[in-house]
Every structure is written in structure tokens, then in C-alpha cells.
């Protein structure tokens, strides 16, 4: 079973999200994650990062942790300086003007949690179980 981790610190810039999307896509494709799952992971990661860019302070950086262990992908996006207000409420209120990205993340992943810390900051945690392509490295040596 494979176990790959990617941990990056990024500036609060849209082009950084573009680079990250390509990196996550490439990693998943090379390991043999099924195309629909690749697309879902890339979009969920992008939505989480875009929330940071929209809501964090201009000089903030943020951290993305992506882990692929067997058939489970885990994505964590951390902003340590600026909490997002009412994340859970926005994520569950279909009439809210904001929070649509949070609803998308929930739809794309098997698990999605959005938490803020008392000291400031936000953690987005998502888990998705993925399927493998034929001959995938996800299933180990073949």
C-alpha cells in the first residue's frame, strides 16, 4: 500500500493555488487514482484554498497537507492567522450568499470538517475514499 504525503506552505496568491492544483492532479494520476476521484480531489483542494485567499489577511500564508494512503485521500488546509466566521453555519445554510464552496467540499468528500481555533485561524479537513485505475500503485505491487 502506498503512503504519500505532500506538505506545502503557500503565499495567499491565486497562482499558488494553480500550481497546487497541478501538483495534486499529477500526484494522483501517477499513483493511479481514478479520473473522477482525481477531479473531485483537485476541486475540493482548490475550493479550500480559494476560501483562504478570499478571507485571510493579505500577508497571510497558508499550509496545505495532502496525503494519499492506500485508497484514502486526506486534505488539510490550515490558515493560522485569520479565522473565518460561522463556517459551519455557512456550510449548512443553502440560502447563504457565502459558503457555497464549503457545500461543494462537503459534496465532493466523504468527510469534511471546518473548524476555527480560539487563537485565530481555520482548519479545513476533508477525506475521500478513492478508486484505483487498472495497474494502479494504490493496490501495491502487482
TrEMBL record:
The segment(s) forming the Histidine kinase/HSP90-like ATPase domain are 11-127
Which of UniProt's keywords are assigned here? Answer: Kinase, Serine/threonine-protein kinase, Transferase
What molecular function terms (GO) are annotated for this protein? Answer: protein serine/threonine kinase activity
Put simply, this protein is called Histidine kinase/HSP90-like ATPase domain-containing protein
Mind giving the lineage of the organism this protein is from? Bacteria, Bacillati, Actinomycetota, Nitriliruptoria, Euzebyales
